[in-house]
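Appendix B, example 12.
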Amino acid sequence: MKDKTTTLTSFMKQRRMGLNDFIQRIATNSYACKHPEVQSILNMNPPQDAAELMNANPSPPPSPSQQINLGPSSNPTAKPSDFHFLKVIGKGSFGKVLLARHRSDDQFYAVKVLQKKAILKKKEEKHIMSERNVLLKNVQHPFLVGLHYSFQTADKLYFVLDYINGGELFYHLQRERCFLEPRARFYAAEIASALGYLHSLNIVYRDLKPENILLDQQGHIILTDFGLCKENIELNGTTSTFCGTPEYLAPEVLHKQPYDRTVDWWCLGAVIYEMLYGLPPFYSRNTAEMYDNILNKPLQLKPNISNAARHLLEGLLQKDRTKRLGCTDDFTEIKNHMFFSPINWEELNAKKLTPPFNPNVTGPNDLRHFDTEFTDEPVPNSIGCSPDSALVTASIKDAAEAFLGFSYAPSMDSYL
């Protein structure tokens, strides 16, 4: 039976590949393309000639099944060719982030371009859709990156995001090794405010680390990358998915126990510790040893920080989540801690407090705070192109179904 299944699977793969080759041959034949039955199969308008069909820009618009849940929108037909893609400014597991200028209004955006095939291969559709859902809710907070709209082609997803060019907190920490306490306090307060807002929406962030914390052009914190967010976690609710970044994993996550919102307060403690000392707490180059440290080693604090900072870190980096700072009253406990007594939270959220560091960027083209590992990389030609119609095969249709409802543009009310 097993041999029959293997043979059948192999046969189906060959048939699918053969069908794909057949469609590509038809697609390159202008005479065949004009036949009405061929047009209905390919779901496209007849091209003028074969060269037009092979031109990656423009491509046929996404089918109606890919364009749902848009709602009232000032830009319901967004497409890659709307943008001039200028520089690679970031990379991730499923694609790249690019600096792009919109061709019609010359506005600059960070466009996150994700490969559907890579997402499907690793079965990460839920995380991507969760990221999109969380981004939709971020318009109300000053320290969370905003989504302008999202759209998709047959093989890619596009997030059109606020362009933030003050650099990652990780980049600045690498250059300066550590921060003085007032600067660490300012960043920690803005981060905590953003986390508190997410928690108020029953969202647990789960992946706080310096690489996901950006500075805007004035020097304020902007939290980004919501791919690991977990939605619908009520005040006392828990989840148990093992995810995060090794250096910042809370003990309960490592134990594979159910965990709650306090996992974010552990991560905040780890980031504050790193800002003050230059390395994450319990750090070791050996990952197994680092995990053992997180689980078993007592927190060690050098004497070069204030008593308030010491008390805060001991509260946030409490291994027992039921005793951790924030376990009872969430963000309110953090906000009221004596470490943050110099902070006026209303003025902080109104961005009326002067940031302790100004990135001094001269404009959108100033990329001094981006790692040259990214900016030196050529922009792939395929980023601004939609695939030709020959790609409308069974596998692409599978991808389209996996990302139903991804496309989004805000209603005009969002801007009023």
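The radius of gyration is 24 Å. DSSP finds 16 helices and seven strands in the chain.
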